[in-house]
Design a protein that fits this description.
alpha/beta; four-stranded mixed sheet; 9 helices; 4 strands
């Protein structure tokens, strides 16, 4: 049965013109309607159709901070075995040549990597499958292939990383004797923002803070892309891994060298070592009497 209106009152229009409007002139009518009125009315009418739910913990995993609130995956950190350049005692960090065979594993480096792969197998790293994330640098990718072969992992689970895991660029130290890197670490111990001297051959001169930004971006990707997986990170050098581990455990970045990785070394990231989030000491530290900063 249809219901009829019992009231003679007609509701006012949503947009009513002011009393002074000349209704006989349409142009005057349209000018008198405030555009803000129109937009407000439209907003009120369509708002119920659009809802924006709050993000839950799993959806917010991409908002990564160091030290992390939690880790969604299990991580193994692996330094590739000795490179051809390292066997000659030469610093080689120029990314221009990172895919060259000259940047690959030495004979000793291959042996070190096989031992690392066997260690990962003994630790059960890939029992329930795993992902291997190596730098595209030749020695790191070769190491990833050896790890995959020993642990029965298909090549489809090797994910090459093209920039975030590049060896730390040491600027003017490029091509120098490997022993001279101690000068870089002396600067690191004073401040994470000190860069090695620059050079014009394409080799970056990266501070600890520069590398920290890179590895934090890497972890943000991994924590967003995977959940309850095992990820093996393969780096061509030690600094990527020591700075990453220092960030994870909340260690002052000036002390990253204390966590040094040898060629072919494997380390499991222990979730128990990750503290409740706090601002890293390196972010608040100020040296009042350089170079005596202790």
């Amino acid at each position: 049965m249809l219901t009829t209106l019992t009231s003679n009152k007609i509701p006012p229009p949503l947009l009513s013109p002011p009393p002074s409007t000349n209704l006989k002139n349409p142009r005057t009518l349209f000018k008198s309607i405030d555009r803000r009125q129109i937009l407000t009315s439209l907003a009120l009418s369509i708002t119920p159709f659009f809802t924006f739910p709050e993000l839950n913990d799993s959806q917010a995993r991409g908002l990564f901070q160091m030290p992390p609130v939690r880790l969604s995956n299990r991580y193994f950190l692996v330094r590739a075995g000795e490179s051809e350049f390292e066997s000659l005692g030469i610093i080689n960090t120029n990314p221009v040549a990172k895919t060259s065979m000259d940047s690959g594993l030495s004979v000793e480096g291959r042996k070190q990597t096989v031992r690392a792969a066997l260690q990962l197998k003994a630790m059960g790293a890939c029992e329930d499958n795993c992902w291997i994330w190596p730098s595209i640098t030749q020695r790191a990718y070769q190491a990833a292939e050896i790890i995959a072969a020993v642990n029965g992992v298909t090549r489809s689970r090797i994910v090459p990383e093209y920039s975030f895991l590049d060896a730390r660029g040491l600027g003017a130290y490029e091509g120098k004797n490997l022993a001279s890197i101690s000068e870089v670490y002396l600067s690191d111990s004073l401040s994470p923002t000190i860069k090695p001297p620059p050079i014009d051959d394409g080799t970056p001169n990266e501070s600890v803070s520069d590398v920290f930004v890179r590895v934090t971006q890497l972890m943000s990707i991994l924590e967003t892309q995977y959940s309850e997986d095992t990820v093996i990170i393969v780096s061509p050098d030690s600094d990527n891994l020591t700075i990453l581990q220092a960030g994870l455990v909340g260690l002052d970045l000036r002390r990253h060298r204390e966590l040094s990785f040898g060629p072919g070394e494997v380390r499991l990231v222990d979730p128990k070592s990750i503290p409740t989030y706090k601002q890293p000491a390196s972010a608040v530290y100020k040296c009042l009497n350089p170079p005596s900063c202790n």
